[in-house]
Amino acid sequence: MPVFRWGEAWGTLKEFEKEMDRLLQSMHFSVRGARAGRVFPAVNLYELEHEYLLTAEIPGVSGEDLDLSIAGGVLTLRGKRSQEPTIPEEQYRRRERIHGAWERSLALPERVDDEGLTAELKEGLLKIHLPKIKQSSTRQIPVITT
Fold it and tell me: Per residue in 54-100, pLDDT tens?
């Protein structure tokens, strides 16, 4: 004879998950988010003929709150999203959108022209254009014998 009814056991686990989310929220970590494998911000990287195009979804982040840098073939995106101050904490029933500072680093598939990088932010979508370095054609290297 079962001790719990089927629905009641899952309800207890959901309450535990909810409580863990509340505890871990200050670290911008969510049990639900980790289980879904989400990373912020979500990005796509496309290889076009003369450039790479990286797009990142960053709703609620302004251009002033963004810092983009590139070094050693790694593109780093840093930013912060402000918390919605008009809604009291006790009124939240579910909170999945992170707030606070975040950072994401991405290794690029090959070297890019650092001087030609451009970025634009429009309606929560960041587009970073990363021009490819023009590859020199193969050339012969003369060998000098002495």
Answer: 999 998 899 999 999 999 889 999 999 887 778 887 888 887 777 78
Q: d(Cα 56, Cα 37) in Å, to the nearest integer?
A: 16
Please count the residues of the chain: 146
Largest alpha-carbon pair distance within the chain? 94
Q: Give the span between the Cα atoms of 118 and 105, in whole angstroms.
A: 17
Q: Are strands 74-81 and 66-71 parallel, antiparallel or unpaired?
A: antiparallel
Among 76, 92, 74, CA closest to 84:
92
Buried-state track 21-48, b at ≥16 Cβ within 10 A, e below 16: beeebeeeebeebeeeeeebbebeeeee
- The number of beta carbons lying within 10 Å of the beta carbon of residue 106 is 16
Close Cβ partners of 20 (under 8 Å, ≥ 6 residues apart): 31
Task: Round to whole Å and give the CA distance between 27 and 34.
Answer: 13
Fold of 39-131: Immunoglobulin-like (2.60.40)
CATH 2.60.40.790 maps onto the chain at: 39-131
Q: Could you identify the residue written with the tokens 């960041």? A: 126
